[in-house]
Design goal:
The protein is of the alpha/beta class. The radius of gyration is 30 Å and the shape is elongated. Strands 2-1-5-3-4 form a five-stranded mixed β-sheet, with helices on one face.
Length: 289
C-alpha cells in the first residue's frame, strides 16, 4: 500500500511540475516575442507589445505576471507602470477583453478607456430561478409551523395565472399544499389582471397581534423555499365580499438578488420591515411558549 501511495504522490507531483513548466514556457515565449516586437518597432509602452505578442492567450494571471517580470528583466519599461486596476479586474482579463473588443492598448489613455468600457458594458439580463419547494424544504416548513395556532390565510394569484403564468400558479399550489399539511387553514382565489397584480411574493396583513404573528410565520416559511416574501401596504381583492385579514399574493417571478443585498434591503432600508422586526421576535417567543 505504501509503495502504491508513494507512486501516486510521485505521479501527482510530477504532473504538477510539468504543468508549471508548460505554463512558464508559454509565458516566456510571449515575453520573448514582446521584447522582439518592442525593440524592432521602438515601442516604449510595453503592455501594447505584450498584447501584440499574444499575452491574451495565456491562462492565468500568474503567467501574465511572469511575462511582465521577464520584460522588466530585459531592461524594458514595466508594462503596468503607473497603471492600476480596480474591482477584481486582472491584467489578463483586461487584455482578453481588449482583444475581444479590438481595442489597442497602445497608451495609458487607451488602457483607462478600456477599463471604463469593461465596467460599463451592458449586463445580460439573468433569467429568474424557477420557484419550487423540495421535499427537504417542505419538511422544514412543516416542522417549523406544526402545532402553532395561526390565523387563516388567503393565497391569491393573478386572474388566468394557470394559463398566462403557470410558474406562479404552480408555486402557489405548492405553497398551499405545504401550509395545509402544516395545519394552516388556506383559502385560495385568483384575482386581478396580471398588470394589476404585484410581482414576486407579497403578503398583506391587517394589523392585529395574531395576524402579525401568522404573517411573520408565513414570511419565514416562504424564505425557507429560497424566495423572499415582501410586505404589502394594500392587497388585490374583489369588491365583493369582506377583504381577507391575511392575503399571500403570488405573482410573476422576479430575479432574486444576492443574499447580502436582500439583507440590506429588508433589514436596513425597508420602513415596512422595521415594523415587522418586533413581530418576528414576538413570533419566536410565541413559538417557545
Amino acid at each position: 500500500m505504501r509503495a502504491k501511495s508513494y507512486r501516486k504522490t510521485a505521479t501527482t507531483g510530477l504532473t504538477g511540475k510539468l504543468n508549471t513548466q508548460r505554463k512558464s514556457g508559454a509565458a516566456r515565449r510571449v515575453a520573448n516575442e514582446a521584447i522582439r516586437v518592442a525593440r524592432k518597432n521602438n515601442i516604449s509602452f510595453t503592455l501594447y507589445a505584450l498584447q501584440n505578442a499574444g499575452v491574451g492567450t495565456l491562462d492565468t494571471e500568474d503567467e501574465f505576471q511572469t511575462a511582465r517580470e521577464l520584460i522588466i528583466q530585459s531592461n524594458l519599461p514595466d508594462p503596468t507602470k503607473d497603471l492600476s486596476l480596480m474591482g477584481g479586474l486582472t491584467w489578463l482579463k483586461l487584455v482578453k477583453f481588449a482583444n475581444e473588443k479590438e481595442i489597442a492598448l497602445c497608451n495609458k489613455v487607451a488602457v483607462y478607456d478600456c477599463i471604463h468600457s469593461f465596467f460599463t458594458q451592458p449586463v445580460q439580463p439573468r433569467q429568474p430561478t424557477r420557484r419550487t419547494i423540495t421535499f427537504d424544504q417542505e419538511t422544514k416548513i412543516i416542522d417549523r409551523l406544526k402545532g402553532l395556532k395561526l390565523q387563516p390565510v388567503w393565497i391569491t394569484t393573478a386572474l388566468r395565472a394557470h394559463e398566462d403564468d403557470p410558474e406562479a400558479y404552480e408555486y402557489a399550489n405548492q405553497v398551499k399544499r405545504v401550509l395545509s399539511r402544516a395545519g394552516v387553514t388556506i383559502n385560495q382565489s385568483a384575482l386581478g389582471l396580471g398588470t394589476l397584480f404585484p410581482s414576486g411574493v407579497s403578503i398583506f396583513v391587517k394589523h392585529h397581534l395574531y395576524n402579525e404573528i401568522t404573517a411573520a410565520a408565513i414570511i419565514d416559511a416562504i424564505r425557507l423555499t429560497g424566495v423572499e416574501c415582501k410586505t404589502a401596504q394594500r392587497q388585490v381583492w374583489s369588491e365583493h365580499g369582506a377583504e381577507p385579514e391575511i392575503n399571500l399574493m403570488i405573482g410573476k417571478n422576479e430575479i432574486t438578488p444576492p443574499l447580502e443585498v436582500l439583507r440590506m434591503v429588508i433589514f436596513q432600508r425597508s420602513p415596512i420591515s422595521k415594523s415587522y422586526r418586533g413581530t418576528e421576535t414576538c413570533w419566536q417567543v410565541y413559538r417557545s411558549a
